[in-house]
Amino acid sequence: MKKFVCLTVVVVLAIIALMSTAAFAGSSSKFAAQVSSVALVPGTTSLDWTKVLSTSIKTPNKKDLLIGASFETGLYTKTVVKSSMGALDTSTAVAGIKIMVTVDGVTVSPGEVIYDKRAQTLSAKLGGILTSCQDLNQDGIIDILTECTFTDEEIGLILDTMAAHHFNFVAADLNTPGDHSVEVWARIDTLSQSTAGLAEASALVGKGSLTVEEVKATNAADGIVFLE
Fold it and tell me: Which residues form the signal peptide (predicted)?
């Protein structure tokens, strides 16, 4: 009879433990994600901060979030210089993509991150292409500088690249339990400068993924350190 009672107590305790675990699992989630298999931002010359991915996660009090943001990034830059008679011509094209993450509308560490950037400058001094000459003063001598015409020579450079980049963001000590909104924002900036030639720049954000994991930092004083 005593053995039966002991066994009953053990079974009851096991059921209570399972119920407690299930209740805790229902009250908070450990992981959340959003994945895009299509391009998020098509090629553009300018884009202010725009939300590209978002998800939500439910946490208890005093938890930390480890947030990963991965994206394909594409940069396009084109520079052309035109010159003759040894004149210097320069063209510059700059394209860049920044990413930041917010939790409940507040930017989390480390803030804005440059995911991709290129500054392309092309300079040249060219002699030009001789098109015609005429002895204007009839002295039997052709002065190249004053009696010949030239058209500009031209050099161009185009770079079109695509790559994948990842960065971890950290939201520490979430003091409010419950649902938290996690959003990823992207920004594109370009610059084009030219004189006789031309310059073009654009950027895009391709496929991407947002992963959010609830974590508990070590109790040591340096569990999470922010260098500023």
Answer: 1-25
